[in-house]
């Protein structure tokens, strides 16, 4: 299968230098491998995504010199696929509905007998309050969680993945997944939409992605994706987690760092080559 990669921004803010690096790197790698570069708009968080930010993404990427195949996959158009994946995991007995608020979780996780709350890729590790609720009893006001112990037991061997970037592949063990990742949310209760971990896995397979190229801030989420893939009968791509672009204090750039927005550099007269230079990609 031809090398196929993607850039998957969420239109919740302006693209900054960190996004430019990720998109340019993936595009360069696809070109070097004579492969395909795809774009995916991760807009399931309808409260925070805007059409203006989405339009700006296309504009900034085209200005940087990137080309991508169309039509672009927009996650808000693909919710039926996430619902089907959720039903499949639910029918396997791996999901349960959860009515806990963030405050409930913090309280339960910091109860005296629990010791200091443990943090996983998605924040405080869920203490399991709703774990005995039945999937069939879910209501519209519930979130949906993966029962991690059951999910790991379902596979005879835990999967491996190949990592070609700067982050070592994390070894999947049952103890790591149950104790340090925990029962993650696969559908949110606030927006009733698929959570990132589910939609990313469904869409990487739907788009035929062979190589996921993304920042090392997502490396701790990769074991979750690699676990979900065989449970859903989907292939596991190769992962490449790259360095992050940081500010002068060593802090990684966030969406609110408008000072480093590509649009701002453009307005100040920078060229796409200047941006490549700023993120340490010197050759076009
Ligand atoms: N949408 C995610 C983000 O903007 C990236 C998802 C991914 O590369 O897997 O951080």
What is the arithmetic mean of pLDDT? Answer: 94
- Kindly state the percentage of residues in helix: 25-40%
Low-confidence stretches: none
Largest sheet: 3 strands, parallel
The third-level CATH topology of the largest domain is Rossmann fold
Number of helices: 10
Task: Specify Rg, calculated over alpha carbons.
Answer: 20 Å
Which structural class matches the secondary elements?
alpha/beta
Identify the CATH class of the largest domain: Alpha Beta
Full CATH superfamily name of the largest domain: HUPs
How are strands sequenced across the largest beta sheet? 1-2-3
Key features of this structure:
284 residues, alpha/beta, three-stranded parallel sheet, binds glutamic acid, Rossmann fold, globular, three-stranded antiparallel sheet
List the helices and strands and how they pair.
Layout: E1 4-7, H1 17-32, E2 36-41, H2 51-63, E3 73-74, H3 79-91, E4 95-98, H4 102-109, E5 119-120, E6 123-124, E7 143-146, H5 148-154, H6 174-181, E8 185-187, H7 196-206, E9 211-215, H8 222-231, E10 238-242, H9 262-267, H10 272-278
Parallel strand pairs: 1-2, 2-3, 9-10
Antiparallel strand pairs: 4-7, 5-6, 7-8
Bound molecules: glutamic acid (GLU).
Residues 8-10, 42, 200, 214, 218 line the site of glutamic acid (GLU).
């Amino acid at each position: 299968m031809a090398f196929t990669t993607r850039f998957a921004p969420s239109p919740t803010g302006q693209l900054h230098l960190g996004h430019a690096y990720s998109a340019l790197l993936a595009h360069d790698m696809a070109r070097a491998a004579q492969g395909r570069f795809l774009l995916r708009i991760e807009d399931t968080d309808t409260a925070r995504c805007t059409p203006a930010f989405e339009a700006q993404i296309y504009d900034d990427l085209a200005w940087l010199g990137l080309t991508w195949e169309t039509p672009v996959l927009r996650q808000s158009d693909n919710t039926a696929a996430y619902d089907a994946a959720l039903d499949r995991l639910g029918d396997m007995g791996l999901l349960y509905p959860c009515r806990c608020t963030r405050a409930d979780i913090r309280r339960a996780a910091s109860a005296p007998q629990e010791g200091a709350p443990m943090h996983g890729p998605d924040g405080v590790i869920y203490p399991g309050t709703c774990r005995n609720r039945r999937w069939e009893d879910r209501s519209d006001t519930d979130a949906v969680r993966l029962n991690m112990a059951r999910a790991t037991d379902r596979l005879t061997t835990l999967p491996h993945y190949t990592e070609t970037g700067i982050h070592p592949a994390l070894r999947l063990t049952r103890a790591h997944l149950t104790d340090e990742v925990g029962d993650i949310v696969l559908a949110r209760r606030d927006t009733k939409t698929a959570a990132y971990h589910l939609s990313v896995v469904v869409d990487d397979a739907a788009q035929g992605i062979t190589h996921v190229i993304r920042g090392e801030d997502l490396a701790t989420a990769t074991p979750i994706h690699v676990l979900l893939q065989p449970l859903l009968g989907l292939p596991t791509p190769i992962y490449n987690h790259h360095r992050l672009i940081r500010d002068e204090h060593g802090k990684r750039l966030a969406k609110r760092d408008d000072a480093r927005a590509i649009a701002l550099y453009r307005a100040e007269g920078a060229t796409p080559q200047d941006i490549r230079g700023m993120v340490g990609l010197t050759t076009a």
